[in-house]
Amino acid sequence: MQVPEETRQVHDEDVKRTVQAQFGRNAAAYVTSDQHANPDKLAELVRWLDPQPTWRVLDIATGGGHVVKAVAPRVRHAVAADLTPSMLRAARAHLDRDGVDNVTYVVADAEQMPFLEASFDAVTCRIAPHHFPNPRRFVEETARILRTGGRFLLVDNIVPEDPELAAFYDHLEQLRDPSHVRCVPEREWRAWFADAGLRVVKAAAVRKSFSFQPWVERMACSADQISAMTAHLRDGSARARDAFRVQFSDDGAPLSFSGWEWMALCERG
């Protein structure tokens, strides 16, 4: 049965308010997150994007500002956009401390961007779309605001096509963070890109490991949440535990698990 448009819009707004609440509380942790600040990952992103000195670049869902910090010194101007004002303030303080002064900060919804058509030479979005209620709309918006020939670099966690494995991973994320919606399989991303007129130039998926304790601490999880996540990892099928390489200590506490991160570089036709 098709969900009425009004009902869907109410649900989407509820999700976005949850995102704002979650990331508003934990903004500082994302600025200092080793995973998000990983210099090797950021250098690889810059190499793929190959930013040019004349460019105007937008970083959507900028979080702690790590991507825009890596890209801004190489372009004419950058815009850091995020749905959560306190996250933007944390990103600005982070970049101001390091002397990055060619960035504008904009509170913006990734699914309804406040920019005219063909406003940017490049758009980036890293480790965020799994929080978007309508990621296909985000892809359409990205294509709209890119100039012809402009580049779009996406990085996000993905899940296997297998419904059981996808559900196992998404439920784990939702136990930790109620603002998590779902991770999208690679094939679905590729279909949305094609429909929006974005041609995939280069793409790669890599294993991504998570140390359990820092992962839960970044979202300031409660004891009840940690217990629920521990039970989910312990009680999952052997197939799921094997696919996500779940590791436990001798006393049964989760140590680590892994998933997949996908990076894709597109050009707008």
Which CATH class is shown?
Alpha Beta
Mean pLDDT: 91
* Tally of discrete structural domains: 1
CATH topology: Rossmann fold
| Secondary structural class | alpha/beta
DSSP strand tally: 8
Summed up, the helix count is: 12
What order do the helices and strands follow?
A: HHHHEHEHEEHEHHEHHHEE
Task: Please bin the fraction of helical residues.
Answer: 40-55%
Radius of gyration: 18 Å
Gross geometry:
globular
Query: How much beta, percentage-wise?
Result: 15-25%
Q: How far apart, in Å, are the first and last alpha carbons?
A: 35 Å
Biggest beta-sheet profile? 8 strands, mixed
SSE inventory with pairings:
Layout: H1 5-25, H2 27-31, H3 34-37, H4 39-49, E1 56-60, H5 66-71, E2 77-82, H6 85-97, E3 103-107, E4 120-126, H7 135-145, E5 146-158, H8 163-176, H9 186-196, E6 198-211, H10 212-217, H11 223-235, H12 238-243, E7 247-248, E8 254-268
Please provide a written account of the structure.
The protein is an alpha/beta fold and 269 residues long. The protein has one domain (5-157, 181-208, 258-268): 3-Layer(aba) Sandwich (Rossmann fold), CATH 3.40.50. The chain is 45% helix and 25% strand. The chain has 12 helices and 8 strands. It has helices at residues 5-25, 27-31, 34-37, 39-49, 66-71, 85-97, 135-145, 163-176, 186-196, 212-217, 223-235, 238-243; strands at residues 56-60, 77-82, 103-107, 120-126, 146-158, 198-211, 247-248, 254-268. Strands 1, 2, 3, 4, 5, 6, 7 and 8 form an 8-stranded mixed beta sheet that branches. β4 (120-126), α7 (135-145) and β5 (146-158) form a beta-alpha-beta unit. It is globular. The mean pLDDT is 91.
